[in-house]
Amino acid sequence: MRNVLILLGLVLFLFNCNVSRVSTANSNKKKPFVWEGANLYFLLTDRFHNGDPTNDVNFGRTAETGKLRGFEGGDLKGITQKIEAGYFTKLGINAIWMTPIVEQIHGSIDEGTGISYGFHGYWTKDWTAIDPNFGTKDDLHQLVEAAHKKGIRILLDAVVNHTGPVTDKDPVWPERWVRTGPPCDYTSFANTTACTLIKNLPDIKTESNENVELPPQLIEKWKAEGRYEQEITELDAFFARTGYPRAPRFYIIKWLTDYITEFGIDGYRVDTVKHTEAYVWQEFRKECDVAFAEYKKNHPEKVLDANGFYLVGEVYNYGISTGQYFDFGDIKVNYFDKAFNSLINFQFKWNMAQQDEETVFRNYSNYLATDLKGFGTLNYLSSHDDGAPFDAARKKPYETATKLLLAPGTSQMYYGDESARSLIVEGTVGDATLRSNMNWEAIKNNPKTKAILAHWQKLGRFRANHPAVGAGIHKMLTQNPYVFSRSLSTGTETDLVLVGLNLPKGEKTLEVSKVFNDGDLLHDAYSKTSVKVKNGKITLNSAFDIVLLERK
Length: 552
Description:
The protein is α/β, with parallel strands linked by helices. The protein has 2 domains: 46-389 and 424-433, Glycosidases (TIM Barrel), CATH 3.20.20.80; 473-551, Immunoglobulin-like, CATH 2.60.40. The chain has helices at 2-22, 45-48, 76-84, 87-90, 137-149, 190-193, 216-225, 228-242, 248-263, 278-298, 348-354, 357-369, 397-405, 440-445, 447-465, 468-471, and strands at 39-43, 95-98, 102-104, 109-110, 115-116, 124-130, 153-158, 178-179, 203-204, 267-270, 310-313, 325-327, 332-334, 342-345, 376-379, 410-414, 473-478, 482-490, 493-501, 506-511, 521-524, 529-532, 537-542, 547-551. α13 (397-405) links the parallel β15 (376-379) and β16 (410-414). α9 runs parallel beside α10 and α13 (397-405) packs parallel to α15 (447-465). The longest helix is centred in the N-terminal third of the chain and has 21 residues, at 2-22. The chain is globular, with a radius of gyration of 25 Å. It starts with a helix and ends with a strand.
C-alpha cells in the first residue's frame, strides 16, 4: 500500500509540474478578455482628433484663453474615425477611457492661468446632455458600436463629487445641493469629503439624504430644450423603482447610469473618489450593475462577454502596496468593498523610477495574487493631471513602453505615450502642459516617431493577445539574461508566455525548459520569427534585445 501511495504521489507531482505546458496546447486560440490584464487607452476627448470641425464652437465660447486652456476641436467622431481606421487595434488596445463628455459650463473662469473653458470635461453643467463640442448622442452610439466591433470596451468618466465652477453664465446650484466651503485640508476623512476641492468648485452634498427639488437652472434649460416632461417622467420612475430619497447623489447616479442602458458602455472611471463617502460608491455600483444587466437583456446581440460592469476609481495617492485600504490618517477605507474593481495606482511611476523591473514585476504579481486577489490595479507612467510624469521630456519612450506594458496589472496608456508626444509645452501653466493635441503629423511623417510607435504596437498587441501578461503569475526564470514567464489559468486553459529583456542583439540562446517542451514551435511576437525548442532551449537570431515568446 505504501508503494502505491508513493507511486500515486509521484504521478501527481509530475502532472502538476507539467500542467501549465500541457494546457497550452490551444494557446493560439482567441483568449478571453480579462479586465485585470487589459490594455487601456486614456485620452482627452477634446485633444485627440477633430472628426467634425462644424462643432468646434458652442455657447459663445470664443474668448481668448490661456495656452491650451480652451476647446481645441477633438470630438467623438474623431475617436470613432481612429477606431475604424484600426489605430487602436494595431496598438493592442482593448479598452478606451475618455474624459467626461457631459455638457460643460458655458462660461469661463480665470484662476491666474488665463481664461479657461471646460474642455477637459470635469466642469459639469448638465449630466443628462452631451456637450455639443464633443458631439451628439448619435455620435456616442456610433463610437460604442464601432469599438465593440473591434473588441474594444468603452469607459466614460464619472464625476459625482462636484459641479462646474460658477460663472456669469453658470449660476451656483441651490444650497441644499452644494456647499461652497470650507476648502479641503486633507487632515482627516471629514476634511477630505465635506469640503470643496478648490475655490469656486461647488461640492455636491453627497452625504445628504434630504429630498431636494431640481435646480431651477436645470428646469429652465430642459423646458427650453423641450424635454422637461420626459426627464421628470424618467426621474419619477427611477425613484419609484429604487425607493431612494430624492437626494442630490441619487439624481446624479440616475443620470450617469442612463449612459449604460442607452449606449451600452462597459465601465466608468470615477473621478475624485476619496472626496465622497465610501457608501456612495456601493450605491453607484449597485445601480451600474442593474443598468448593465438591463442593457444586456434588451440587447443580447450586442453582449461582448460575461464580464460585469467595470468600475475603476481615482483615489488620489492610492498605491498598490497598501492593498485594499486607503489611509486618511484617522480611518482606513476599503473602496474595493462592493464598489470598485480596480483603483488607479499612483505608486507605479515611483516604483519604476527607483527599482529594477524584476523587483516591481515580482512584487506586483504577489500583491495581485494575495491582498488584491479578485481585484485589479491600473498602472500609468503619465497622465492628464500628474505634473511629475515618469518621462516628461520623452527621452525614454522605449523603456516607458517596456515597463508599462509588461507590468502585472492593467496598463493605462496615456494618449501620445506611444508617439512621444511631449509633456513639456512652452507657454503653458500647470496641467495644460500635459494636454497638448495628439501629434498625428509626427506619427505620419517622422521616422523616429514611427519607430517608437512600432515598439509600443508590438508590446501592446502581445499584451492584448495574452491576458497572462497583465493578469498572470510572474516567475523569473533567469536573472542574467533577464527572462521571465507569466501564466494565467482561465477555465480549462492556461495562457502562458515567456519574455526576455535586455538581451544581446543578433543571436541569442534562452533556457525555456520550465515553460515549453522539446519540439514545441514558438513564435517571437517582437521579431515575428519562429523557432523550435531543442534540448530545453531556443536559439533566435534577431536585431532586437527583446523576445516575446508564445506558442505558435
